[in-house]
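User: Hey, quick favor. My workstation is busy. Could you predict this chain's structure for me?
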Amino acid sequence: MKYLSKNSTNEELEGIKKGDTIKDDTGKQGEVTQIEILTRRQEKQYYYKLKNDGTILVIK
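Assistant: No problem, here it is.
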């Protein structure tokens, strides 16, 4: 299981692959089924869609 937070490095966030099990600092967890990375000006938004409904969002 990989733990994600706003303090996670870009390398950690980009290293997440489909099928990985992740958990965020609010306690939400699950298996990643889809990943979307959006770039807006100076920030990156990492959306991880979870298998059992839900999404984890990390903004860097």
